[in-house]
């Protein structure tokens, strides 16, 4: 088990050299006058007589240190409005963004600095004799332990207090005499043993050290008062509550407001007898005040050390509902919500007991209290505190509401998990906060799996992983990076980046659980929360140590895992294609690995972080699950490190029955290429020609990876229909709905899955949306017909053709049917408008909805129908239904106003739909009239959700009507009018999304200067100071407006404060869109091989051929062919048809064998092609059909007697339209090839890189070919043995022998008549572009001593193996080229051709 670590030095620095040991808070609350007064007592360990605390927004009356009045210097952080800068230097979006960075970072830095400086002179008399005596006893105790522990020093109680590692208050070690008296006997025994062992010297030294610590302990008494508090603590009506905003605890009581400072608390609150005070810890007692009997004092005690941020308080006319399931929990709310509270918390004990059972420990913080307050009162949906949590009452629901159940249970379970990991066990440093956040999310998913189902848990994790892969593109999402954690002052947990970090933390921990096993991971969590554990903090280093010791993970693996997944950013991108070899019964996987992180930081995104190249790889092996006819088999064969492009072979276990296919001699190929099945063009025959049903990559989500897998359509259909895993089904639907050409087989598969009641309801909803997306005129709107038919089969009366009354007893079926109207509304005809049948269907559902006799509420049911209207596109045919639809919406608005429904959900959907209709038919509807209809819903008497939705809709209409600048001005106006903190935050989030969708790069005229200054005033104003979430999002708005990322990541910590913004960087002008992942470039290799630029003019860089292209930019195309000089026009035409464009080419499947390499030319210009693995010469994948580089070698056949030479032809073809045609000439000057030795076949290569010999030469391919030949010979012998008695076979054999004999005799006579020309003379290399005509009997070639330059896009062959020695006239080696068939990897377009080059 990991040793307890001492608190870092910066923890003490946060308190100005003071470490808090214990704090007592005694306050009286006057609700009528919104007044808080009282005092706090802080026991600090200070090295100097001067130390600092945090305090703000309060009036400090006096400060006493050890009972003596002292001087203090108090400078509040907040300054008045009049002290704000005038922003005179702001001239454009860029300067405004720089000023926002300066203002924001200055405010954060100032708030983190202690501002209450206390000066006192040390008086030894202030230390009581009792403290000295107790200190002496403690030293004797520790000295006795020295011997027991082999002379190693043991942490004293004061050390534990300083380090925040003890679970008791300071007075338990110093002032609690009862506990000390109970241990006197044990201490005396240890003292005697110590004296006997002669440890007097150690005793004296330890006594001096302990006395020094006791002398440095000070008791600070601060008397203060708060009037009209607005920050940290809030008065709303007759309710007062605190919020757990970052660094806002010191705004309602003096403290050391730092996450690294933790101590126990004693809390006393005096309120009116009409109110209840709820705070942290256990309620010891409540007593009437002696001075004023109309007031009552509530006394709480929290023994667990926590930071000041987790101290919370709620005062109001609350109703307390103890849990009825024998758990130590109280549920609290206001009176109007009591009925909903009873129904909501009915299942809370499931989560409570689930965590206690899994962690094998009781809830550590005593009585757990859940307080539910109206949304307009809260700052966050859930505000955490030690043993408390303040929720928004919006999550409460009665037994009639279905849609809110799942979300509410998950939110309550997550808040409870944060009590275990986040408060009880806290992060040692800001860099370790990801670990506690991830463990809390892990516990929550454990609850989801147990009580909401495994399908729900896996589906949520799959969608969360997809979100992380899309967003993990910059260093801002690195989990344990100083630049992304400590340097951001806690803002890394706010906004979209905070959500991504939380999701990524859970995914990383789940990967670790997969590696070590669930039992080992559970043991680690039990060790962390064990009551006898010395430390109550957790660090990444300690967790890594536990993963090694308890989880049995090897140190080399952890040494790679944590730096790659935790300390850096980026997720792997895997692109895979398959090919099945029927003869070998083997699957070949072409794999390309990339990374979502940007290779280099965006120059204007302020990012100087540490995104790493995807080439670094990730530890471990990824599994591939092959579903065959005989079953499913897992193959952990995909390495996550090493070369970015690889080919992996997987042996199939199943075999098809032998099937003899007779072919004519004309279609039979001697090279055996017909043995390979081309999956890309024979998709419908896959189940017949191969034992493969479907293939899955990483089926158990062992990696947080973005996977793009290409397999035939029929295999995707098999996966959807036969695989029971929800992730597999969702992946299949996602691929099928994006197919460029849809068949009825795909539509039928989606429809069958939608009708399958055994399938998971969330995936069935995906199938419904897929049917809507795939519905088109090409398929006769088959998807729309299937959706309508499915709905009517469940909800319509077949006799009358009308909807039946609602019945929601089948909850999964309810969710699926609820999504059908929205899916129908997404269907579009050829004119991009909604079909008439879709509009009529939705209108019919809305018109005849009947909820009589249904025990459940239909508020969400109606809301889904209304929102579906907003998705309709009204063409000329649909405009006739618009008036009827608007009347229905108006009727629902009046009904919900007369009889308010649940949380105003129906009104919110009606307002949103009206705005969408107004934007779609703005030419027919007056926007001002719509705004007049919506504006009354902003009145303060309306429900909070309705009021906020009306404000957001009006901002959207202003954007559509007048532009972004007008929308921002309206936002500033609404924020100023909005009284609720949470409402202002929601408006800011909405405007941030608008800016991200509307900002045009380099357009400085989108936002006026006055609007920018207004945003800056809001950023630096009181409203933003009271609400840190509003302030952060306003800062993000200004950054996005300037084209930057909405984060503080990369912003320099040392900045000059506004209003003057100095030294504005000139490179901060490009938009940093962090939502689009960018692939990293491979490492560039330097070689001596001439580049393509030297032979063929190009306009773009090149890239290694072993890296699969995944970008859309155009690249050059280079093709190399070896063919005969006197080729026919038909062969020439076939060659032209052989040009590949990365797609499926039917000509490539013919008798011609070719090799094609597709490599994006984005690397160094002088790089050679580099391909490796599994006996292939070239690997090829094209994700952009317009850009590829190819090299093909045609079949080398013996010509007739008039053709006595062969020609090596190199042609270059470019897809770049910018270059003139003469730059793409296929000719290569003859001296470049003829005047240098060893150049006859250097254009054809089988080597993997420039330094390696070909595998065929090395013997690998030769052995494999010999093995195949041996099998073929055995098969032929068996056939001959069976046919030796067949007269017809014997006659054919005799005729064949005679024919061969005659051909040999004829060839011999021709050679004698032609002067016995050597084979080398018939192999003279001639460039294709040459205008010379070869003579019938050419002389022997004369070659120079220099190697020939070759195209860098060509594979290379060692000249040692292919050089023809022309100095001799005797028997010379002949070169034989055998071309085996190509294999096309479906989807990836990876073309592989094997070459055997033999010397004989």
Topology:
Elements: H1 9-14, E1 18-30, E2 35-46, E3 50-53, E4 59-65, E5 68-69, E6 71-74, H2 93-112, E7 116-119, H3 129-148, H4 157-163, H5 177-182, H6 184-196, H7 200-216, E8 217-227, E9 233-236, E10 239-242, E11 263-272, E12 276-279, E13 282-288, E14 295-306, E15 313-316, E16 318-322, E17 329-334, H8 338-344, H9 348-359, E18 368-373, E19 382-385, E20 388-392, H10 405-420, E21 426-427, H11 433-451, H12 454-471, H13 495-516, H14 518-529, E22 537-538, H15 540-549, H16 555-566, E23 572-581, E24 586-595, E25 621-628, E26 631-639, E27 645-651, E28 676-677, H17 686-689, E29 692-697, E30 706-710, H18 713-722, H19 726-736, H20 744-755, H21 761-774, H22 782-795, E31 796-797, E32 802-803, H23 811-825, H24 836-847, H25 859-870, H26 879-898, H27 905-920, H28 927-934, H29 944-962, H30 964-977, H31 981-998, H32 1009-1019, H33 1022-1026, H34 1028-1041, H35 1092-1095, E33 1117-1124, H36 1129-1137, E34 1206-1213, H37 1231-1234, H38 1255-1258, H39 1260-1283, H40 1287-1313, H41 1359-1362, E35 1375-1379, E36 1383-1385, E37 1390-1392, E38 1395-1399
Parallel strand pairs: 1-11, 17-18, 18-20, 21-22, 23-30
Antiparallel strand pairs: 1-2, 2-8, 3-7, 4-5, 4-8, 6-7, 9-10, 10-15, 11-14, 12-15, 13-14, 16-17, 19-20, 23-24, 23-28, 24-27, 25-26, 25-29, 31-32, 33-34, 35-38, 36-37
Helix pairs in contact: 2-32, 2-34, 3-6, 3-7, 9-10, 9-11, 10-11, 11-12, 11-13, 12-13, 13-14, 18-19, 18-20, 19-21, 20-21, 20-22, 21-22, 21-23, 22-23, 23-25, 24-25, 24-26, 25-27, 26-27, 27-29, 29-30, 29-31, 30-31, 30-32, 31-34, 32-34
Protein name: Transcription initiation factor TFIID subunit 2
Main location: nucleus
Region (Disordered): 119-160, 173-212, 597-621, 1067-1109, 1125-1152, 1221-1369
